[in-house]
Amino acid sequence: MRLLTHNMLSSNIKGVTNGFPLRIEVEKVVEKEVEINHDFLRNIFPKIDWKAFSDASRIMGYVELPEEAPEPSVLESDLEFLRKFHHALLELHLEEGALVCPETGRKFPVNKGIPNMLLHEDEV
Amino acid sequence: MKLKQLECLLGHLQQFSNPKAENSFDDISNKVVADFGCGCGTLGAAAALLGAEQVIGIDIDSQSLGIASMNAENLELDIDFVQCDISNLGWRGQIVDTVVMNPPFGTRKKGADIDFLFVALKVASEAVYSLHKTSTRDHVKRAALRDLNASSAEVLCELRFDVPQLYKFHKKKEVDIAVDLWRFVPKRSRGENINVGVRCPLD
């Protein structure tokens, strides 16, 4: 599971007001290189919840991202930043671990890179 | 979905790149695409091959997801998979550009395809491509425009699917059904968090 996907997933357990972002518990992170697409990065940047994203990247072991979202103009010219953004968003995979509901603490396991978000009967 | 059907589907999707009809290509190329009820990942893989930048496949069944994962790897495609019940999907807003899906047709659980459409129209920001039985065409159009927040609903083409006896509840050895390929455009929300566990309003 990439951090792009993590940035979209939230806990939907009954009674939870805000299930985003899910906290990450890491057991195994895998890095898979993928070709960079600058235009794609510029388009997706405004849609990303930056705090959740940069916090998550730190937990995954990558400390290069700034805590505060940079100005969009940075993406026009700063290739080094684009490279770091690309790496954290698309090249870091949580292979084994868990996603944790921020309100209930319920763990959603991640195995072979696939998070299991299925709810139990009493959580629906 | 058989390879033959996929080829037919892709053929139709690629036809629509003239200015008069909607430009389907723009909905996929360089975009974030989600495949709802991805099964073995065929549609998602097709989207990736057509130039989607990122594809996310969602399905309830772990066995299908295992196969989907393997298929993606064999095709050297970069696809994320999530195991989830679509009706309980917790999702933050309309970040995904396009949703593609071949939903359950609602034979066993009535209205299953409309449930999927409900969620898809909340998650996609640009377009939803979906397959529904031709026999339900009027119902789907009405539901989409009146109840599910679609600003437009258009049948792109009609396909014929040979569905072999795949599941225990299938009574015949093979059945030939007419299926519509739809393109829906969602109305944009103002970017709030969306928890999509609300029951479909048509239940």
Please, could you describe this protein's structure?
With 124 residues, chain A is of the alpha+beta class. Chain A has one domain: Single Sheet (N-terminal domain of TfIIb). Chain A is 31% helix and 20% strand. A 4-stranded antiparallel sheet of chain A has the order 1-2-3-4. Chain A is globular and about 50 Å long. The mean pLDDT of chain A is 95. Chain B has a single domain (1-10, 27-186), classed as Vaccinia Virus protein VP39 (Rossmann fold, 3-Layer(aba) Sandwich), CATH 3.40.50.150. Helices cover 31% and strands 32% of the residues of chain B. In chain B, the strands form 2 sheets. A 7-stranded mixed sheet of chain B has the order 3-2-1-5-6-8-7, with helices on both faces. In chain B, helix 3 links the parallel strand 1 and strand 2 (54-59). The longest helix of chain B is centred in the N-terminal third of the chain and has 13 residues, at 3-15. Classes of the chains: A alpha+beta (124), B alpha/beta (203). The interface between A and B is medium-sized, with 35 and 29 residues.
- The strand order across the widest sheet of chain A is 1-2-3-4
CATH top level assignment of chain B: Alpha Beta
Strand order of the largest sheet of chain B: 3-2-1-5-6-8-7
What sort of overall outline of chain A do the alpha carbons produce when their principal axes are compared? globular
* Net shape of chain B: globular
Number of helices of chain A: 5
Q: Supply the CATH superfamily name of chain B.
A: Vaccinia Virus protein VP39
The structural domain count of chain A equals 1
Give the mean pLDDT of chain B: 82
Low-confidence stretches of chain B: 15-22, 197-203
- H-E string of chain B: HHEHEHEEEHEHEEE
Number of strands of chain B: 9
Tell me the distance between the termini of chain B.
Answer: 28 Å
CATH hierarchy: architecture of chain A: Single Sheet
Query: Would you identify the CATH architecture of chain B?
Result: 3-Layer(aba) Sandwich
Domain Methyltransferase small (chain B): 27-110
Protein name (chain B): Methyltransferase-like protein 5
Family (chain B): Belongs to the methyltransferase superfamily. PrmA family.
GO molecular function (chain B): nucleic acid binding; rRNA (adenine-N6-)-methyltransferase activity
